[in-house]
Structures are given as C-alpha cells and as structure tokens.
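seq:
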Amino acid sequence: MNYDKLAELLFPHITKTPEDYETIYPPRQLPAGAKVTRLGPSPTGFIHLGNLYGAFVDERLARQSGGIFYLRIEDTDDKRYVDGAVETIITSLDFFGIDFDEGAAIDGSNGDYGPYYQSQRGEIYQCYVKALVKKGQAYPCFLTEEEIAAIRQNQEQNKENPGIYGEYAPCRGLILEEIEQNINAGKPYVIRLKSDGHQDPQKARTISIEDGIRGILSMPENYQDVVILKATGIPTYHFAHVVDDHLMRTTHVVRGEEWISSLPIHVELFEKLGFEMPIFCHTAQLMKLDNGNKRKLSKRKDPELSLDYYRQEGYMPQAVREYLLTVLNSNYEEWRQKNPDADAGEFPFQVEKMSNSGALFDLDKLNDVSKDVLVKIPADQLCAFLKQWAGEFKPEILPLLEGHEDYIEKILDLGRSGKKPRKDLVYGKQIFQFIRYFFDDYFEIEDAYPENASDDVKEILSRYLETYDHSDDQSQWFDKIRAIGEELNYAARPKDYKKNPDQYKGHVGDVSTVIRIAVMGRSQSPDVWEIQQILGEERTKARLKAQL
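struct:
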C-alpha cells in the first residue's frame, strides 16, 4: 500500500504538516513545575455540579503552581448543541468565582493557543489524521450502519466483545484501488485508528498509567479500531482531545472516573501521534445518600446537580466554594479550624488528598458550611448579594430592598456580634423567609401561643402595651416583662417553674414568647428587644394592638 498516495487521496486540501502546528503552538514559557489545566465542557445547555467540581480542581492546580487555566468548548457533537449554552457555561462558572487565564469567552476568545472551540479546529485534526494515514496507522472504513449491526449481532452470538477489530474490520485490508473505487462511487466513510493491540487477553500488552489521584492504573491495551474522524470530517472526542491537549500544552487532565475505561484508546493515540501524555486525574463521581445507600447524583432525580439550583436558591458563591473544598480534600476542614479567617485560596490543595471511591455530596452539610461562611460576611455585602439575587430570581421583593439598605443591614446583623454569633442565614430564599416578618405585607402569625399562657394572651399583651417604652434599654425592657409575668403568676425564672410546676401557670419565657409571636409571628427568633428597635415604636405597637 502506498500510504502517501492514500493520504493525499483522502486529504488533498490539507497542506500543513504536524511540524507546522508544532511551530504555531510552541511549548509554553512557564516556571518550572507550572501546571496547564483546562475545562472542556460540551455546550449542551446543562452545566452541573460536576463541571464546577472539576473546574475547581483545574483552577487550584494552575493557580497554585503559577500555571495556566483555560476554557475549551468541546462542540464537535452538533446534534447536542444548544444555542446560548456557551454563555450559560461562562456566566455560571464566573458566578462561582471560576475565572480563566485564556480560552473561550462571551465576547470571543483570548490566548495564543486557539481556536478554543473544537468546531473551529477541523483542519488541525485532519492534518494529524492525515499523518496517521501516511504512517499506515489509520484507514478509511466504508462499513454501513447495517453492516456494523450485523457484525455486532454475530459477535453477540459468538459471545465476543463488540466492536470493529481484527477479523471484524474488513476495510483494514482494502487495497488503494478498492478505496478509490469506493470513494468514486460516492460511498461515505469514516477514518478508523488501525490499532496494534491484541484482543486476546493472554497476548494483550498491559499498560500502566500513573493517575494523579489514584496512583498507578493498569489495564489491557486497546485493540479496537475506533473511529477518529466521522464521515462529516469532524473528529470524535477521543481524537480531538488528544490533539488539543498536546497543542495547547496541557499538563494535567482532570476528568470524571467514567473516562477510565477509555484510557487505553487515549494512550494508544498519544503513542501513535508521538505526543507526551499529560497526567490524568480521574475524579470520583459525586454521590449522595438516599435512604442510607450511596448513589450517583442524577440529573433526573436531583435538582441540586444543576448549578442553576444554587443560583435560584441564592447560595453565595463563597459558601459553595468553601463546601466543595471540604469534598475535594479530606484535610480541608482541619486546615479551616486552624485558619478560621484565612482566604480559602491559601489552602494548599493536593490531588493526592482527593477521594477515589465516590465523593459524598450532602446538601445539609452545605447549609451548615454556608451558615459558617455567611456569619463572617459583612451585612452590606450580604445586602448587596440579596438584592442581586432578588433582582434575578425574586423581583417582587426587590422594592423592599432597594432604597432601604440601612434597614436591611440592621436586620441582617441581628445577633451576629459577640463571641457566639447566631448563624441563622443560609441562602437567599431562606434568608428572606427568615426575615419576612420585618415587612408588613409578609408578616403573619405562624406559630401558636404557648399552651401555658394561652388563657392570658390578651392580658399579657394589654399590660405589655401599657408599659411599653421604646426608649427602654434591654435590661429595663426585660424587667417589665418579668414583672408582668409575676403579676399573672408566672415564675420569674424557668428553673423556679421546673422545681415547682404546680405553683405557677408557667414561667417568664412563656410570657416573652407571647410577645414574640405577637410582634414577629414566630416562637423562635433573634432577640425581641433588638427586633423591636429595628421595627420602630409605631409598627411594634400596631402589631400588638392588632393581636388585641
């Protein structure tokens, strides 16, 4: 076979050589040890937690080593392409603090190693496919879908592995004249890798790859003649990412463990193309507990898999990032305890500390982490975030926030000072539910009055209203509540009531709860005196009178 002639027959329009592209995309000039990482999402319209999880690993590896983190859009599957998906990817990742040094951007691309859209790199891929054909390591395959289906049926009957290989790869043996006849007859064809692997496990070579997370991975070599260029001239993912990762000088490829089974194909492609392999880091799947059992997060079952979920609920990006670090590195929480006020970016992230057996995602724990994060964020920043969130996802409450920032900041700061600050705030939707009683249109009595004091509600409120003085300090205010309770036979201290329950109707806590519910509508809230100071005298009295 004259492979040079075959290559020219298949790719007459390709004039550049691999050497040309090596010159166009030279090795990067970076400090020793600098890592080059990439995120390569497909523009399918759905960006999920796994994308953010992987992006965080990429970003940490590059940032901590003085390297480069870039965004590549892997849009070779035009059937799954969704308009606007690239903008969604970029804005969603930007919201969570993931920024790129180069690559695809909303207003085009930036960087010297583009194009950063795979759909714009067709000639580059075809150049390298042509090079493989020239070396006799790839060939055109004219099998129809019906013929491939028949081969698969035969393999199933013989209990053999499915695929095109060995005796099941009839186009491997076509001579140049037969190939020319097929092309002249207008027969569509793909280009397949001519694998050197052996399908017999006894004869197959074992390949060993050092995974950045999992250590040494050993498995049989590839023996499948996989498609590397579709009939449309578009490469498959397998081929495109190998070429791109080489030319963009990627040093570390972070991807999900579902790609481990494809590793033998990628190893063979790197070897045949003569490229140095990057370090693969196969992350564990994100799991959740469901009735005590671990299972993979599901797009269909779990809304929290979508990044839109966190934006719509109003989680602050800092909280999500903080929580993901606890999932990503087993020693992060210990570091955080020792460095409570340090920026999360100072944490020495290590891929070796990542789980390889299923990373457990726990929404309850995210909420706990979010409470810890939000309690340290100044009220003015929380207010600004709340307005931003409301403007996008709950516009009907925006008029309550805009122009009333001083009022909102006082509300958000309730109970957050001192050695043991309250941790009531979690995410936008929950925050508004928590503070809604501060707005008359959203105020309602949600809880029942305490049973011990149910017969005295009106008397308690009436006496409280009579003695109410908005200028009282906290001590004077509580003394009046205690006095009302004692007058109505409520113990001045809960422990007195506990010792002698038959002597009292209840205790002073029941009396203050009656007042709390009348003013806030709830039996649990931050300090009542502070809340009244924020509400103001007129609104406080109006709520008391309404209950009378």
